[in-house]
Design brief:
Structural class: mainly alpha
Helix content: 55-70%
Radius of gyration: 21 Å
Length: 380
């Protein structure tokens, strides 16, 4: 836990310096970016089990994957691109740590590309903004929410790829968007759920209408979600259908959080309020102060969809399946970054107050999600 908090403090300081410090030189920024990326890479490579299904992935690599002979069923226990990369790495170096290093490089590089992109819309500059102007702040939020995916699993790799598709949604470049989604689904099929994001992002209507749809969809989907997932699993069948069915075995047969005790139910409800409710209210507030912001409206649209998926799946199937919402809920990162864009809240004092409030909220979520999960190295 100490390592996690230490990194949290480091990226928090970098974010503060980025937003409120003296003017930064390009060389200084690059040096700090390199230090941060190197730190995350080393942690991702050094991590061990049991978190992030480490022992399962290690066993598949060392026991099931056969170098030299590609087209064996046991070489494709997981999705095709992940399995192919695993097979290639084993042919190069039959060492699981080497494979972890390759995956860590892909994850950290994808997050670097995302943080270095244009995350906010600035109308006063004709819709342009300096790419990477909120780099460390984006990485701060990535660490606070997801520990920058250093405990990566297959869906983590798919997630960071999907996060980089948003710029193609903004450009209305459907071809590249679909290509990246297919690439992500090669690491985890759940990435396909992000395909509708291209159309959802561009949905323009009143905020009040969005909230009515949000509430109605949450109630309606919660009632039918478990039945729909079972139906899809039966229709598809095969390995994919079996994987869907296993979510019910893990979390209880379609009862979701209601299968837990009253104390657990209360903690789940509190988590929903903390993880979803606060950000929905923040999104509503941002919509009010940043009117006519196409980036922010798109992020808010996607986040609302993620909230519906999270609540509906959590209530009807269970926590493990609720993770499918992460592709949409990751839009909370650019939403939070929007608190620091220029506009009605652009003065120093307001931005400082927002940073303090967001940091307190972020640390609360970070601490709750990290409690009881010490960082374990592979040699321990």
């Amino acid at each position: 836990m100490g390592i996690y908090i230490g990194v949290y403090g480091g990226v928090a300081l970098l974010s503060f310096y980025e937003l409120f410090g003296m003017k930064k030189g390009k060389k200084t920024t690059v040096v700090f970016q390199a230090v941060l990326a190197t730190t995350l890479f080393l942690l991702a490579v050094a991590r061990g089990g049991p978190y992030g299904d480490y022992f399962v992935y290690k066993e598949v690599f060392e026991v099931y994957t056969v170098p030299g002979e590609l087209f064996l069923k046991q070489n494709f226990v997981f999705e095709p691109l992940y399995s192919l990369l695993q097979w290639l790495c084993k042919n190069i170096c039959d060492n699981f740590i080497f494979f972890e290093a390759v995956l860590a490089l892909a994850v950290i590089l994808s997050e670097h590309i995302y943080a270095a992109s244009k995350l906010v819309y600035e109308a006063e500059k004709g819709g342009t903004a300096n790419k990477g102007q909120f780099y460390f702040t984006a990485m701060y939020f990535l660490w606070g929410l997801y520990k920058c995916n250093i405990l990566f699993i297959r869906s983590s790799i798919a997630l960071v790829i999907c996060m980089n598709t948003v710029k193609y949604i903004q450009k209305k470049d459907f071809k590249y968007f679909v290509c990246l989604i297919l690439l992500a689904s090669g690491f985890h099929y759940s990435a396909l759920i992000f395909l509708p994001a291209y159309f959802i992002y561009h949905w323009h209507t009143k905020v009040s209408t969005k909230m009515v749809v949000f509430l109605a969809s949450t109630v309606g989907l919660s009632a039918v979600f478990a039945t729909a997932v079972r139906f899809v699993a039966q229709v598809i069948g095969g390995d994919f259908g079996n994987k869907l069915s296993k979510y019910f075995e893990v979390d209880g047969l379609g009862y979701g959080i209601f299968a837990t005790g009253s104390s657990s139910l209360l903690s789940f409800l509190l988590r929903i309020v903390l993880n979803i409710g606060v950000l929905v209210l923040a999104g509503l507030y941002l919509q009010k102060i940043h009117k006519q912001d196409p980036f922010l409206e798109g992020y808010f649209n996607l986040y609302l969809v993620g909230s519906v998926l999270y609540i509906a799946s959590l209530f009807s199937v269970g926590y493990a399946f609720a993770r499918i919402s992460i592709y949409y809920n990751a839009m909370q990162i650019p939403m939070l970054v929007s608190f620091f864009q220029k506009g009605k809240v652009g003065n120093y004092r307001n931005r400082l107050i927002y940073w303090i409030i967001i940091s307190c909220y972020l640390f609360a979520r970070f601490y709750i999600n990290s409690a009881g999960q010490p960082f374990t190295t592979f040699w321990q």
